[in-house]
Amino acid sequence: MSYNVLVAEPRDSHWASIANGVRRRQPEAEILRVKDGEQAVRFLFQRGLLTEEPDTPDLIVLAADLPLVPVNAILARLRQHPRTRTVPVIFMWPDCGDDDSDDGPPESQQWLHPQPDVLVILGTHRLDKEVADAIHQLSAKRSLG
After folding, report:
1. Burial class (CB in 10 A: 0-12, 13-18, 19+), 127
2. Does some domain include residue 144?
3. Taking a C-beta distance cutoff of 8 angstroms, is the pair 98, 122 a contact?
4. Which helix (H) or strand (E) holds 39?
5. Which of 86, 15, 25 is nearest to 57 (CA)?
6. Cα distance between residue 70 and residue 81, in whole Å
7. Mean pLDDT, the chain, as a whole number?
């Protein structure tokens, strides 16, 4: 059984750490990276020439500061569509690894916390470990494969 992960992350350095974290828990995972919110929406919801429905990933990793389409709009659309409603999401707060990012999301982003199957990680200098731990937490809640 194939395990598919969609990662929406604009920064190359974070992408490498995220991919390493995914591989720690899901060594055989197929990981697709997009660099902005518009690409994420197109991948998740746009029909292809040869497909009726786009592929549904088993896990989605979203950077909080995606360009073009805000992450809260992506998450809202995910939760409205029957095909993606229950896909687990790891949400990464911006500037992961920076010393001044330890306050967490501001009150304007508190909509994240009550969301089912959404884990918020603040990211430390060990982003790969944070991602692996988040996947482990999600696996404990449900069977991810």
Report:
1. buried
2. no
3. no
4. helix 37-45
5. 86
6. 17
7. 81
Q: Would residue 139 count as lying in a domain?
A: no
CA dist list (Å): 57 to 52, 99, 103, 107, 110:
16, 32, 30, 29, 25
Distance of CA 9 to the CA centre of its chain: 9
pLDDT reading at 37 higher than 90 = yes
What is the residue type of 41? V
Question: Can you give the residue range of the structural domain that contains 53?
Answer: 4-134
Q: Are 97 and 123 in contact (CB under 8 A)?
A: yes
Tokens representing 71? 């992450």
The number of residues in the chain equals: 145
Q: Do the domain assignments include residue 145? A: no
Is 138's pLDDT higher than 50?
A: yes
Which CATH number fits the domain that encloses residue 15? Answer: 3.40.50.2300
* In a domain? residue 142: no
Question: 121 with 22: CB under 8 angstroms?
Answer: no
Residue 104 has pLDDT above 70, yes or no: no
Please, what is the Cα angle at 126 between 114 and 71, to 5 degrees? 35
In one letter, which amino acid is 30?
Answer: E
